Amino acid sequence: MKAPHPDGLVPHRGYSGMGREKGAAKTASEIDNELEEEEYFTAPDYKGGYEIGSGDNRVQHNIWLPEEVLPGFRKDTTDLFWKLNNTANAILDALTMSLDLTELEAKSIRDLHTGHEY
């Protein structure tokens, strides 16, 4: 494995293969029926993912494939991350305008969504 998701919660970066995460565990924790809860906890998870974030995040550092394994992957995914962040901020601005927030209120919301996840 060239860029494995580390054991533990931090950093939540790198490649998570099928079965690595349990997406149904949150649902299981909200159920009162023990038998049904057990079914959620033991359900197979067929998703995989490669998580990245801001390169400036000191806690959640990125875990990259070596450049020679997949040339351009780091640059392309970093570019995509920031393009999606800009899109999310445009949507956030539209929402703050629709809520008729003051500029100070809108700024306080924008400051929570810098893309750096501090």
Summarize the structure.
InterPro entries: IPNS-like_sf. The chain has about 120 residues and is mostly helical. It is about 40% helix and about 5% strand.
General description of the model:
Residues 1-28 are annotated as: Disordered. This protein has helices at 25-29, 34-42, 73-98, 103-110; strands at residues 14-16, 49-51. The model has no long low-confidence stretch (mean pLDDT 86). The protein has 2 domains: 1-64, no CATH class; 68-112. The protein has 4 helices and 2 strands, in the order βααβαα. Strands 1-2 form a two-stranded antiparallel sheet. Helix 3 (73-98) packs antiparallel against helix 4 (103-110).
| Strand portion | 5-15%
Give the uncertain stretches in residue-range form: none
Average the pLDDT over all residues and give the rounded result. 86
Shape, principal axes of CA atoms? flat
Number of domains: 2
Structural class: mainly alpha
Q: Order of strands side by side in the largest beta sheet?
A: 1-2
What's the N-to-C terminus distance?
28 Å
Number of helices: 4
Number of strands: 2
Radius of gyration: 19 Å
Specify the helix fraction band.
Answer: 40-55%
Largest beta-sheet details: 2 strands, antiparallel
Order of helices and strands: EHHEHH
InterPro entries: IPNS-like_sf (IPR027443)
Compile the SSE list and pairings.
Blueprint: E1 14-16, H1 25-29, H2 34-42, E2 49-51, H3 73-98, H4 103-110
Antiparallel strand pairs: 1-2
Helix pairs in contact: 3-4
